[in-house]
Amino acid sequence: MGLFDRLKGKLGGLFVEGEKVNDEFYDELEEALILSDAGAYLACEIVEELRKRCKKESVKLRQDARAVLRGQLTELLESAGSRDMDLKTRPSVVLVTGVNGAGKTTSIGKLAARLTGEGRTVLLCAGDTFRAAAADQLEIWAGRAGCGIIRQQEGADPASVLFDAVNAAKARGVDIVLCDTAGRLQNKQNLMNELNKISRVLDRELPGCSRETLLTLDATTGQNGLAQVKGFSEVAGLTGIILTKLDGTAKGGVTLAVARETGVPVKWVGLGEQLSDFAPFDPVGFVEAIV
């Protein structure tokens, strides 16, 4: 069973065998897209484009419109850019941010396990020194993933922790430094200062290193998630998204909205608590599940 097979199709009930494509169908589809958190503007845009494609291809039946819509939504998701991770240098650095409760630390642990499972050496950096017990939680995941961790006391300067982690990685010949960073978006200036300081450490200690900045996004937050992506993009220059909690309760439409309105690609997705419930994002599989 594929990872996305557990997603409940929110749109599938519209494509009744033998029924015709008509205005009622398009109205129902637009409403279903809005209810799935795609947003009113994007829902309207998707439906109008589907009308054009169905007319051009002389599609008359709903079951045939399903294939057209799948192709259309897959194109939309793929337009956000490459989902490949840039990990060419040794070490490479992956910074992970996200608001509290989005599953950031868990996602870092799962990503570490995934990378070590591929034969790469990983060093975790406990850079979210603001949140109580964040480093303790990360240390548990380091044990599960079979990788090392660099941490300091609570309240330490995150850039100082990263400095230690980068130099430890160089000394040990580690492939990837995976760094937990703070996600206090409500105070953008402080977050920007913190990330700028981290960036300067990387520029000085690892000039030219491959670098990813990933946002952990809770799929159940709906359109609020779109605002988070825009906010963190302004501050952090995101290269990708880890979409979490994408199970039967998540509507999933925000994934379409993020691709259309921000151009930041979803690179990883988590659908549960197990290490195996985490995988690279597959637009084709995702669309197949929701339509």
Account of the 3D structure:
This protein is α/β, with parallel strands linked by helices. It is 47% helix and 14% strand. The chain has ten helices and eight strands. It has helices at 23-35, 40-56, 62-78, 104-117, 134-145, 158-172, 188-205, 223-236, 253-262, 283-290, and strands at residues 92-97, 122-126, 148-150, 176-180, 211-218, 240-244, 266-270, 278-280. Strand 7 (266-270) and strand 8 form a beta hairpin. Helix 3 (62-78) packs across helix 9. The longest helix is centred in the C-terminal third of the chain and has 18 residues, at 188-205. The model has no long low-confidence stretch (mean pLDDT 88).
List the helices and strands and how they pair.
Layout: H1 23-35, H2 40-56, H3 62-78, E1 92-97, H4 104-117, E2 122-126, H5 134-145, E3 148-150, H6 158-172, E4 176-180, H7 188-205, E5 211-218, H8 223-236, E6 240-244, H9 253-262, E7 266-270, E8 278-280, H10 283-290
Parallel strand pairs: 1-4, 1-5, 2-3, 2-4, 5-6, 6-7
Antiparallel strand pairs: 7-8
Helix pairs in contact: 1-2, 2-3, 3-9, 3-10, 4-5, 6-7, 8-9
Please describe the structure with a list of short key phrases separated by commas or semicolons:
alpha/beta, Rossmann fold, 291 residues, 2 domains, single chain, Four Helix Bundle (Hemerythrin (Met), subunit A)
